[in-house]
Specification:
Helix content is 54%, strand content 8%. The chain is mainly α. The chain has 3 domains: 41 residues, no CATH class; 36 residues; 40 residues, no CATH class. Keywords: Coiled coil.
């Protein structure tokens, strides 16, 4: 909301006649009070239907671009995971090595040897299918 003072507000020496102010969000109530008391007028430019439609189209395009970026990031992550070599002797690896391998293959936290083996098995099954 944008207002222009037409009179000097009582008790507010910082505002001058002809001064323009913009209020956003919760502060718009203050601007409305100045207008209601006759100290200011609303000079907010009107919004046309085409502006609203283009804003909705812009928001839809931005949402589509964000979704496309998310899908691309997911695809890149899966590609990087598929390039990680899973050795045949996984059961013989130490926990430290298992954990290091599993962390590269999942986003889930690896807290135990069982978690690491499970993550590696899930990725091996994904590759097999």
């Amino acid at each position: 909301m944008k207002i222009k003072f037409t009179a000097k507000p009582l008790g507010r020496p910082e505002f001058k006649i002809g001064q323009e102010l913009e209020f956003h969000g919760r502060d718009e109530a203050y601007g409305r009070k100045y207008i209601d008391r006759g100290w200011a007028e609303d000079i907010t430019p009107p919004v046309s239907v085409t502006e609203v439609q283009s804003t909705e189209a812009d928001e839809a395009a931005a949402a589509a671009a964000a979704e496309a970026a998310r899908l691309q990031a997911e695809a890149d992550k899966l590609k990087a995971r598929s390039e990680v070599v899973i050795p045949d002797d996984v059961a013989e690896l130490s926990f430290v090595d298992l954990r290091a391998l599993a962390v590269q293959l999942t986003d889930e936290p690896i807290r135990s040897k069982d978690d690491a083996i499970k993550a590696i098995e899930i990725e091996a099954n994904r590759r097999a299918s």
